[in-house]
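Re: the request from the purification team.
They wanted to know what the chain is likely to look like in 3D before they choose a buffer screen. I agreed to run a prediction and write the result into the notebook, where they can find it.
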Amino acid sequence: MNEEQKEYLRKMNSEYNIEDTTDKIREEKQSQYLKGDINNLFILKLKYSNKEELKKVCDKNCEYLKNKQPKLYEKLLGDDSNRTIELTAKMITILEHIETGKIDQTMGSYQFGEVCKEIFIDPKLAEKDNKENDIEPEKMSYKDFKNKQW
């Protein structure tokens, strides 16, 4: 993020009274517990193929993840696509950086937005560009072309 973007973000945070939760994030230090439970969840997914049994075992062995980040827990329990794993790993890394003082919550939010853009938006834009390049030009005579111009 360049200085102009940082200044704009500071202005927006001030203007909209955005609460800085950096200290709260650093006190809670969730990343180590989340990382442990996420690793346990993926190990358990390898051991249990029955979804009901897997859920029961994960409910017991991944309590921190289930209670503190229930939406993430449900997502990881039902989806182990590379995209989900990649996003989760990057999210935990950003959280660790906030906790260790490398960045603040505002910069973490910005970085997370960049990760989401990279994973979700950029591929759609590339897909759109490819579709536009695949369009066959309309075949017409010079006379037809001139008639369409005016």
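For the purification team: The chain is about 80% helix and 0% strand.
Please add any questions underneath this entry.
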